[in-house]
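User: Could you check the structure of this?
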Amino acid sequence: MSIPAAREFQPNRKSRSSAKAAAVAKALGHPKRLELVELLAEAPQTVEKLCTITETKVKSVSAHLKALSRAGLVASSREGRFQRYRITGPKVAELIRVLREAADLSAPAVAELIEEVKLEGADAVLDAETAEG
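Assistant: Sure, the predicted structure tokens are below.
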């Protein structure tokens, strides 16, 4: 049995693109990270300023910024003893805007789904009580 050539196992361009998109989505999957990107879309900020605005500890903000930086959403530069962060371009701000719009559009559907789950849960409880009694 022959071993397939290594190139057969390399991901194609589309799967690499999907992997990049998934990394961006994962980086934005935490509410604090989303908040930080929104703040940086308004203006570049130091870590200390972001901590003050978000009422979050330096260690936490730094970890979130590191994840955002790995995803290519933010970049930093040193200014004396401070690290100033900024979004990497206008497409990042556009992405956040589109995400917010999508969340607003889906909010009624999510609320409806939650109600359905609650009702189904209540029905299951009633069915269990009926079966017991």
